[in-house]
Design goal:
Strand content: 25-35%
Structural class: alpha+beta
Radius of gyration: 22 Å
Oligomer: single chain
Strand order of the largest sheet: 2-3-4-5-1-6-7
Shape: elongated
Distance between the termini: 39 Å
Largest sheet: 7 strands, antiparallel
Number of helices: 7
Helix content: 25-40%
C-alpha cells in the first residue's frame, strides 16, 4: 500500500540540490518535475514505481505508491537523509510517529513491502476480474490474471519474477515507432483508438479499440477492422509477444502477413466506437 513520510519544516529546499544529492549514491536517478512544487524521482532501470517529493503546508511529503520496490524505498530514505543533513530542525514523521534514525525504512524490511503490495494487487485484480494499471518512469504496465499466471505465483520466488517483468516493461522493450493514439469523443464518453498499420513496429498498450486496415490504400472508417485488446490477446500474430496483461511487442508484419491476419480476424470485428 502507499506510504507517506511527512517532513515538518518552515525551510524551503531546492529540488535540484535534492537531485544532486540522490545522484551521489545512485547515478541512475532521474528527476521529473510534475509541477512547481512536486518532483517525481525514480531509478532508471530499477524502480517499479518511483517516489513523489512535494512542498506542502507542513513542509514536505515523500510519497511511495503501491508496489514500490527496494530501489524506491532507498530513494525515499536518501531524501530523508538529505533533509537531516541540510535542513536543521526538520522533524520527520512516519505513521504518526517522529522518526529519529536516518532510515525510515529498515533495509531488512524493504523486500517484504514489495511482496506484500503484490499480494494486494493480486487480490484486487482477482476480486474485480480486471488487470490493475500502474504508472512509473513515464510508462505504464498492467497486472492481472495473465501476469500472475506467467510469473507462476504458486512457486517460490514469484515476487522476484514479477519485479523483473515490470522492469522489462518499463525499461527493456524495443522502441515503438509510433505512440500516436486517437482520442474520439469528449469527457466520459471519449474512447482511445490505436491504428495499427502493416509497416510500423509498435509497443501496444491498452485501448478501447485497435484499428487495422482492410485495404492497402484507404483509412476510411468503413475500411477498418475494429478489435478489442482481449480479442487481440487471444489471437496474436505469431511474431508478436505479449509481455503483461495488455503490453505487446508488435514488430511490423509487412503487407502480405498483415492482410492475411486481417482477413482471419474479420469475424471478430466489433464496431464499438459508434
Amino acid at each position: 500500500m502507499s506510504q507517506t513520510i511527512k517532513i515538518h519544516t518552515q525551510a524551503t529546499i531546492d529540488f535540484e540540490k535534492v537531485y544532486d544529492f540522490l545522484q551521489k549514491s545512485d547515478k541512475a536517478v532521474v528527476g521529473l518535475g510534475r509541477s512547481e512544487n512536486m518532483v517525481y524521482f525514480y531509478s532508471n532501470g530499477y524502480s517499479t514505481r518511483g517516489i513523489d517529493v512535494s512542498k506542502e503546508n507542513i513542509g514536505y511529503e515523500i510519497r511511495l505508491p503501491t508496489l514500490a520496490n527496494v530501489a524506491d524505498y532507498k530513494l525515499a530514505n536518501n531524501v530523508v537523509l538529505f533533509f537531516k543533513i541540510n535542513v536543521p530542525g526538520a522533524v520527520i514523521v512516519f505513521d504518526d510517529n517522529e522518526v529519529f534514525t536516518t532510515n525510515v525504512f529498515l533495509t531488512n524490511n524493504l523486500k517484504s513491502y514489495f511482496k506484500s503490495d503484490a499480494e494486494l494487487v493480486y487480490q484486487l485484480a482477482m476480486q474485480h476480474q480486471t488487470p490493475i494499471t500502474l504508472f512509473a518512469a513515464g510508462n505504464e504496465y498492467y497486472i492481472g490474471r495473465y501476469v500472475f499466471s506467467k510469473i507462476r505465483m504458486d512457486e517460490d520466488g514469484w515476487e522476484l519474477r514479477l519485479e523483473a517483468l515490470i522492469q522489462q516493461v518499463l525499461y527493456k522493450l524495443p522502441n515503438s515507432e509510433s505512440d500516436n493514439v486517437l482520442q474520439i469523443g469528449q469527457g466520459d464518453e471519449s474512447k482511445t483508438a490505436k491504428l495499427v498499420t502493416a509497416h510500423v513496429s509498435y509497443i501496444l498498450k491498452k485501448y478501447d479499440v485497435l484499428l487495422f486496415n482492410k485495404s492497402k490504400d484507404s483509412n476510411h472508417i468503413n475500411d477498418l477492422l475494429f478489435l478489442t485488446n482481449d480479442t487481440l490477446n487471444e489471437n496474436l500474430p505469431t511474431s508478436w509477444e505479449r509481455i503483461d496483461d495488455y503490453t505487446i511487442i508488435a514488430p511490423s508484419l509487412g503487407w502480405d502477413v498483415y492482410s492475411e491476419y486481417v482477413k482471419m480476424m474479420l469475424p471478430h470485428h466489433q464496431n464499438i466506437l459508434f
